[in-house]
Specification:
With 371 residues, the protein is α/β, with parallel strands linked by helices. It has two domains: 261 residues, Spore Coat Polysaccharide Biosynthesis Protein SpsA, Chain A (Alpha-Beta Complex); 84 residues, Hexapeptide repeat proteins (UDP N-Acetylglucosamine Acyltransferase, domain 1), CATH 2.160.10.10. The chain has nine helices and 28 strands. Strands 1, 4, 5, 6, 8, 9, 10, 11 and 12 form a nine-stranded mixed β-sheet that branches. Strands 14-17-20-23-26 form a five-stranded parallel β-sheet, with no helix packed on it. It has a five-stranded parallel β-sheet with strand order 15-18-21-24-27, with no helix packed on it. The protein is elongated, with a radius of gyration of 21 Å. The termini are far apart. About 2% of the residues have low confidence.
Length: 371
């Protein structure tokens, strides 16, 4: 797999993430009890033998920088190549404030000199908020066999997300139309994973820059669908994108299904994560834990049902936690009761408090809150 290079896009905060997106990009949101969203993109690349990865930053990036470090947790800390955190492409401010993210082509134009340093023949473009476990080596081999200019990875009918890109294809997998802003989705929903040659990518970036074009979806996929040979690769496994609080909650709760966990966390392609350095979870004599994901370092003296607990969560005696997602170091006091709550890091819910959300509108507690 020396012929493939990875570029991961980490976008600015998404307003639909509410409190979860105030201090971090979607790429660095905790997911699944011990992971960050970007862990899945990096693991997909590393599992396919990719050793050179660039991460394009935008927006609140400190959380992601802290998480990535040198890249050693993904075997990407290398003297040559490895993980490269690319300069902020909106570093130059416009009209007194940072520029908004307009599209992938503008981001790639901002790192144009980096593209010239890529040693590999092909590149895979991915988004950091995509939660999926792809057989990327198979997709790359399929791309080479097909002779396509760009391979578009798509999900099945179960993968739906907001403001998606949809592709219609013929029986040979050749893309016949590229659509978005659909009231009634049709075709295949794109996972925002693309494979193409480095040379073609540089030509597209230069051409779009010279015409003040910034959108990968509009100015490349749609405008150049005729001249370019676009092919679909259909992925039938679990996939999720984190675009809103509701989507985050729903997709997280799906992990309580053993079949979905087995699909996302398969032994053949392990998902790597930053170590938590915690002791084993502890469930006290009066504690109960049912149908939940509990990370290392948790201390459960109360009842936990249908919930996801990140490292270091404490559930006090008599407390009840149902259908919740509790981030790292959250503490639930004695006799407190929580349902349908997403608590960010270091939240402290005092004794006897009651918080009741709903599956269609979970309560979100900001980092460091005291309730």
């Amino acid at each position: 797999m020396k012929g493939l290079h990875g570029i991961v896009f980490s976008y600015e905060k998404r307003n639909d993430l509410r409190e979860l997106g105030e201090i971090r990009s979607a790429s660095s949101i905790p997911f699944g009890g011990r992971y960050r969203a970007v862990d899945f993109a990096l693991s997909n690349l590393v599992n396919a033998g990719v050793s050179d990865v660039g991460v394009v930053l935008h927006g609140p990036y400190q959380s992601l920088l802290d998480h990535l470090g040198t890249g050693k947790d993904w075997d990407l800390s290398r003297k040559r190549g490895g993980l490269k955190v690319l300069p902020l492409f909106d570093y130059q401010k416009r009209w007194g404030g940072p520029s908004a993210f307009r599209g992938k082509m503008e981001a790639l134009a901002g790192i144009r000199s980096y593209l010239d340093t890529i040693r590999q023949d092909h590149v895979v473009l991915m988004e950091g908020d995509l939660v999926v476990n792809l057989p990327l080596s198979d997709i790359y081999e399929n791309h080479l066999r097909s002779g396509a200019d760009i391979t578009v990875v798509c999900g099945n009918d179960s993968f739906q997300t907001e403001n998606g890109t949809y592709f219609e294809a013929d029986h040979e997998g050749r893309v016949t139309d590229v659509l978005y802003h659909l009231n009634v989705p049709r075709g295949y929903r794109g996972l925002e994973v693309y494979i193409l040659s480095v040379q073609l990518l540089k030509e597209l970036v230069d051409d779009c820059t010279s015409h003040d074009q910034y959108s990968w979806r509009k100015d490349v996929l749609q405008a150049r669908r005729g001249p370019l040979d676009l092919r679909c690769y259909i992925w039938n496994g679990f996939a999720a994108q984190i675009r809103s609080v509701q989507e985050y909650y729903d997709r997280s709760m799906q992990l309580l299904d053993p079949a979905i966990r087995a699909d996302l966390f398969c032994r053949e392609r392990p998902i790597r994560a930053k170590g938590a350095d915690k002791s084993s979870a502890y469930v006290g004599p009066d504690g109960r834990c049912l149908n939940s994901l509990v990370a290392d370092g948790c201390n459960i003296e109360g009842t936990v049902e249908n919930s996801i607990l990140f490292p270091g969560v404490v559930v006090g005696p008599g407390a009840t936690v149902r259908n919740c997602i509790l981030f790292k170091e959250t503490a639930i006091g004695k006799d407190a009761e929580l349902a349908y709550v997403i608590a960010d890091k270091n939240v402290d819910v005092l004794a006897g408090r009651t918080l009741m959300g709903h599956s269609s509108y979970p309560i979100v507690l900001a980092k460091g809150s005291v309730i």
